[in-house]
Amino acid sequence: MTAPQRTPLYDSHVAFDGKLIDFGGWELPVNYGSQIAEHEAVRTDAGMFDVSHMLVTDVTGDNAKAFFQKLIANDVAKLTFVGKALYSAMLNDNGGVMDDLIVYRMNEEETAYRIVSNGATREKDSAQFAKIAQEFGIILTPRYDVAMIAVQGPKAIEKLLTVKPEWADKVNALKPFVGADIGDGWFVARTGYTGEDGVEVILPAEKSGEFFQALAKAGVKPCGLGARDTLRMEAGMNLYGNDMTDEVSPLEAGMAWTVDLKDENRDFVGKSALVALKSAGVTVKQVGLLLEGKGVMRAGMEVVTDAGSGITTSGVFSPSLNQSIAIARVPVDFTGEHAKVIMRGKEVEVRVLKLPFVRNGKKQFD
């Protein structure tokens, strides 16, 4: 057994009494005392997460745009200006999701881009990047020298700017899904994984502890993986390995909106498999489930519908709703508003809802 890797913020987690666990081979805090308090901070005020386990890769070269048009299912031609971000799945040859990632355009000439991909899949991702890169002669630079902190919540930007007032013009001008190079190796993007406003800050690793401490002093609450999971679940956001996997296509995982088939001449990895699946007919779809009674739904529970069985892919107790919620894959023909989930051998009634459950602190259903 190899010891889990540590991010540049390991000492900060220890200093703030973080309860550290092994998460996909990384030693990260599950909470700093109260997952519920951390969740509430992000929904009502501001919280921050160490997401330095995610891999930042800089991509440069004359064929960088062509490389991405082959690598991912979404089309980087949508990145019409510097700083614009694109969310996409990276597929395998069978059309399954190898990972989901964000690509930023970094220069006018379309010869420099930045990828942010998941921590648990970094070896697999890097191997795929390198394999496709050979064809296009581009340079991949994994940025092991940076840290990444997500500052999220309705007061996230306000509190961030008390720490970095000199950023005000650039940060206030950022629209959702746009990033800006602040200089000296700092990059700020208006993105996140919580369903709240906020930013993700990529910064030099050696500056990260001091920045984390300054944010905490400004009233930004350190938050762990527990709150990150309940927040992303309420926001209806997929988790790699649960709601999307190598065996599941984006068309089956609620990610059809990230697949761009408009350019018939663009041949991306997994395209032919997706086109075949589309013409054969997708058999499952993604929905949200709400448990009206007591108990907590978890991943891997059978969902019973009048159109056949489905399965929960993620499930938690939602602090904002005070009820259990789940993301599930069910038969595509199922249109009912109620289903049943098998919990401890018993069928339990659940409501079927459109995702998300919560967005910007507000419940999204009646």
UniProtKB/TrEMBL annotation:
Residue stretches in coiled coil: none
Residue ranges of domain GCVT N-terminal in the record: 9-262
GO BP field: glycine decarboxylation via glycine cleavage system; methylation
Gene3D superfamilies: Aminomethyltransferase beta-barrel domains (2.40.30.110), Aminomethyltransferase fragment (4.10.1250.10), Probable tRNA modification gtpase trme, domain 1 (3.30.1360.120)
GO MF annotation terms: aminomethyltransferase activity; methyltransferase activity; transaminase activity
Enzyme Commission numbers on file: 2.1.2.10
Residues the entry annotates as binding substrate: 200
Domain Aminomethyltransferase C-terminal: start-end pairs: 285-358
Top-level taxon of origin: Bacteria
Family: Belongs to the GcvT family.
Function: The glycine cleavage system catalyzes the degradation of glycine.
Protein name (Swiss-Prot/TrEMBL): Aminomethyltransferase
Gene behind this protein: gcvT
